[in-house]
Amino acid sequence: MERLRPTTWMLLLILLSAALILCTLGYAGRREKDAQIRKSAEEREARFAAATTVEVWAAGYRSSDGSFCGACSPNPTRLYSTSDPDEVRDVLAHFRFRRRVNDEPEVGVCGFITIDFMRDGKILHSTNLKSARLEPESWSWVDSWLSQRDLVNKAAAVLSGPRKNR
User: Fold this and answer.
1) How far apart are CA 142 and CA 126, in angstroms?
2) pLDDT tens digits for range 126-157
3) From CA 90, how far away is CA 79, in angstroms rounded?
4) pLDDT (tens digit, 9 = 90+) per residue, 79-115?
5) Helices marked H in the chain — which ranges?
6) Cα gap 81→63, rounded to integer Å
7) Which of 102, 117, 130, 140 is most buried per CB count within 10 Å?
């Protein structure tokens, strides 16, 4: 077997060192991104923690001025509203945003169900479910909660119906 020359060993050592450095930097970048996502999730959840009312809309994304996305919301309709303290507390307990980076692609369009978390008639937080990055357990719970109230079918019926004039 032929012996490697010292320059070959040096090259291998440099390549291995570079790979180790890149892996370390990637891990640090991933941890930083995870920390940012965790902080963002906690901030969103803190915004709606004081909610006393939960409303479900057949509508797309709600902008900061309170209006819904026009293209996704031809007929914005409130499908469900509850101020029952036990039910609101249950929704708040189960509605959790992801705390870590995942490989899901960003969603560029809004879906047809938006949930508003409110207090005293004021929207504390509004989430369109298509773009919500929820923990898997939260998705399961929210899906079950919506299904128990037949809200997905009701939203689909609203969106396939006649459009309101704006």
Assistant:
1) 15
2) 888 887 778 888 889 999 999 999 999 999 88
3) 19
4) 999 999 999 999 999 988 776 655 555 555 677 899 9
5) 6-48, 85-94, 136-148, 151-160
6) 20
7) 117
Nearest Cα to Cα of residue 134 among 148, 113, 118: 113
Which of these, 153, 62, 51, 71, lies nearest to 114 by C-alpha position?
62
CA 79, 82, 86, 89 dihedral sign is positive
Side-chain half-sphere of 54: how many Cα atoms within 13 Å?
21
Closest C-alpha among 58, 54, 59 to residue 81: 54
Closest CA to 145 of 97, 99, 87: 87
49 touches 122 (CB < 8 A): no
Give the tokens for residue 118: 């409110």
Task: Read off the pTM.
Answer: 0.70
- Report domain extents, the chain: 43-160
